[in-house]
Amino acid sequence: MLSYFIRRLAGAIPTLFLIIAVSFVLVRLAPGGPFDKERKVPATVEAKLIEKYHLDEPLPQQFARYVAGLAQGDFGPSFKYPDRSVSELIGIGFPVSLTLGLSAIALALAAGIGLGIWAALRQNTWIDYLCVGTAMLGIAIPNYVFAPLMTLVFGLMLGWLPVNGWGEPRHMVLPILALAIPQVATITRLTRASMLEVLNSNFVRTARAKGLPEMVTLLRHTIRAALLPVVSYLGPAVANIVTGSVIIEEIFRIPGIGRYFVQGAINRDYTMVLGVTILFGALIILCNLIADLCYSLLDPKVRYD
């Protein structure tokens, strides 16, 4: 497994480099610039700013300078926040987004796997129809619809929970629920479909024919095999939910990395957009690698030779 892990890491380096190169070019091709504001600065001041941030250099030279900084862990200065670097802003926002995302995915896993298994074991009953119908509703209605509705009902009408802010546990309830609901729906459907397929497989029939108790068959054989599609889904899902909770962070005014990304895109803050994009790409690669390594824990037939 160690050699497989090293090979995957080695293969991830050119992938990440390609992400950096494509993102660097695309962000420069976007119309407008970091100093094109409603209130135009004098030409001399703008020229000094362009020179300060090396934007007057040829694109290959800018790219080489940027990659050299990345090799030292420097994402560059922020154009919108001159007194802070992108690394500092990511260090401020990423722990908040990480807490929000991991809490939501943990809730989604617990609820989704439980509902999926329950629905599969009660196939074609009212329980199954209720779980599948609720899952379809959760997939059909996006979280930017759920979030304002929960804010209106539980925050403004009932007054049970705050509708913005971050720091206390009661501030986390609504955003975590809004972010987790679509994931619960998807994991429920994946678990149910995989569980039904495994329940009808030959090795489960053999285990039952040998007289194993139903609970032992479920825990030792069925559930482990049924979770493989869920693990595959979790690779990109975790990275997406951690760095992609932009709408939820905007609605609930959470100081996460998503808000910096949105403001960076609006203000053409090249380095901020690039920093979040690179972080997102690295997370996807890492999460997919962890998901692949988890296969051997769930399926004994999987070997990394």
Automatic annotation (TrEMBL):
The keyword Transmembrane applies. InterPro entries: BPD_transp_1_N (IPR045621), MetI-like (IPR000515), MetI-like_sf (IPR035906). It holds the Pfam family BPD_transp_1. It comes from the Bacteria. Keywords: Cell membrane, Membrane, Transmembrane, Transmembrane helix, Transport. It is found in: Cell membrane. Residues 94-291 form the ABC transmembrane type-1 domain. The keyword Plastid does not apply. It is a multi-pass membrane protein. One of its GO terms (cellular component) is plasma membrane. The chain crosses the membrane at residues 12-30, 89-121, 141-161, 225-248, 269-291. GO terms for biological process: transmembrane transport. Belongs to the binding-protein-dependent transport system permease family. NCBIfam families: PRK09471.1. PANTHER family: INNER MEMBRANE ABC TRANSPORTER (PTHR30465), OLIGOPEPTIDE TRANSPORT SYSTEM PERMEASE PROTEIN OPPB (PTHR30465:SF74). This is Oligopeptide transport system permease protein.
